[in-house]
Amino acid sequence: MSEIEKVALVTGGSRGIGRAIVIALAQAGWEVVFSYHQNAQAAEETAQAARQAGREVLPVQADIAEEAGRERLVNAALEAFGGIDLLVNNAGIAPRSRVDLLEMTRESFDEVMDTNLKGPFFLTQRVARVMIEQARALQSPVQAPPDESSPVVMPMIINIGSISAYASSTNRGEYCLSKAGVSMMTALFADRLAGEGILVYEVRPGIIMTDMTAAAQSKYDRLIQEGLLPIRRWGMPEDIARAVTALAGGALPYSTGEIINVDGGFHLRRL
User: Fold this and answer.
1) What pLDDT digit, counting tens, does each position of 97-116 carry?
2) Which residues are 142's β-sheet partners?
3) CATH second-level architecture of 6-262?
4) Radius of gyration of the chain from Cα atoms?
């Protein structure tokens, strides 16, 4: 572990994929601030599990769909640690009800898009400005080549996307649209921030065992058994966390805008 303090900000860290990411980052030597929406008990359980790694972990109640929530989260990180080196946009919701595309309501569309796309976009905008100010204050070289003798924490943004960015589900179209937007958001920020020395990636999960997929477990059990995935098993939150920690640790310093599929091979086109 590097002696340099590394500060990560993770959204939606109380359960599922977010919880696994918070714990994995703490185990990798990161101080972690994470948001939760309502479940304070689950958030504290996540924090306690992550603190076993000996790092500082701070849960913050914040709805990232709202500007006030985003500001509360960023300010908490800055007050606690003085900076942010890594942002993981993980928080996301499914529609409250799966309904046919022709029956989708404007209310459901707005709710999902606000949390899954609008919120992460403007949080990324806010945190990117913080990262740029930090780099300028330190007069850090932009796009410096890796130097093993002098480890540097590279500022980074990782968006948690979904195979729903390209795989149609007509009974949850608002979710698919939001994740397609996250993919373009990744490309846009990767392009804009590369010159500032900030790397941007998308980790794209497939069928992951979480609360969100629990309602359709029997369907996915059958599809996986029938060969939908080349790797015939459910993905676990820890699979996503491994990808995030690898990127955060500097595994791909000469890449940005890259999509890392963690989907059991779902993205492969097979005959």
Assistant:
1) 999 999 999 999 999 999 99
2) none
3) 3-Layer(aba) Sandwich (3.40)
4) 18
Measure the CA–CA gap between 1 and 27, rounded to whole angstroms: 9
pTM: 0.94
Distance of CA 54 to the CA centre of its chain: 23
Which residue from 160, 65, 159 is spatially nearest to 114, judged by alpha carbons? 65
Q: Which residues contact 139 (CB under 8 A, 6 or more apart)?
A: none
The span from the CA of 109 to the CA of 116, in Å, is: 11
Helix (H, G, I), strand (E, B) or coil at 53: coil
Burial class for 138, CB neighbours closer than 10 Å (0-12, 13-18, 19+): exposed
DSSP string covering 107-128: HHHHHHHIIIIIHHHHHHHHHH
Catalytic residues: 175
Domain parsing of the chain, residue ranges: 6-262
53 Cβ contact partners less than 8 Å away, ≥ 6 residues apart: 23, 26, 27, 29
- What are 204's strand-pairing partners? 261
